[in-house]
Design a protein that fits this description.
Structural class: alpha+beta
CATH architecture of the largest domain: 2-Layer Sandwich
GO molecular function: translation release factor activity
Mean pLDDT: 78
Distance between the termini: 91 Å
Helix content: 25-40%
Radius of gyration: 27 Å
Subunit structure: Interacts (via C-terminus) with MTRES1 (via S4 domain). Associates with mitoribosomal S39 large subunit, peptidyl tRNA and nascent chain.
Main location: mitochondrion
Protein name: Mitochondrial translation release factor in rescue
Subcellular location: Mitochondrion
Strand content: 5-15%
CATH class of the largest domain: Alpha Beta
Length: 170
């Protein structure tokens, strides 16, 4: 018996053609982009995507070290903290956000991509541009809130001045 995928004319996802021509045995084209292609990564839960540099695995040096911080003995004795070093730039990222080594490896690579984007593009980095936009938006919101509070205060003072004894109210 052969299993034929009902959605596709291919037997399984391992035989699907890539977007760049040919077939990719064992790896789908979504998982493995061609070398040098920009990687699209979601930033801060937003729906729009940012072009980040593609990480070459041969340029990375990865170590697993013991974790630290809250969690007691379970955290201190397991080597699930990932230290990732980008050899050409010398940037080092340490990730110990979860107890899972696989998730920490993935997150360390995401952080590394963001840091490399800032390193190579400088002030024109998409990450920095978005942070600046968010900061300006936050300051604008604070300013509007302050103005509204000031208007309310002046309005209440005006009402109190009208309702003082000895003056007629309209």
């Amino acid at each position: 018996l052969e299993y034929i995928c009902p959605v596709s004319r291919f037997r399984n996802s391992l035989e699907m053609p890539t977007l760049w021509g040919g077939f990719s045995p064992g790896v789908s084209s979504v998982v493995k982009p061609p070398p040098g292609a920009p990687t699209r990564v979601a930033v801060a839960g937003k729906k729009d995507l940012v072009d980040l540099v593609h990480l070459e695995e041969d340029e990375l040096e990865e170590q697993f070290v013991r974790g630290s911080g809250p969690g007691g003995q379970a955290t201190n004795k397991t080597s699930n903290c990932v230290v990732l070093k980008h050899i050409p730039s010398g940037i080092v990222v340490k990730c110990h956000q979860t107890r899972s080594v696989d998730i920490n490896r993935k997150r360390a690579r995401e952080i590394m991509q963001q840091k490399l984007d800032v390193f190579y593009k400088g002030e024109h980095s998409d990450i920095l541009v978005r942070k600046k936009e968010a900061e300006v938006k936050k300051q604008d919101k604070r300013r509007r809130v302050k103005e509204n509070l000031e208007r309310k205060r002046l309005f209440k003072e005006g009402l109190q001045a009208q309702n003082t004894p000895g003056k007629e109210t309209v």
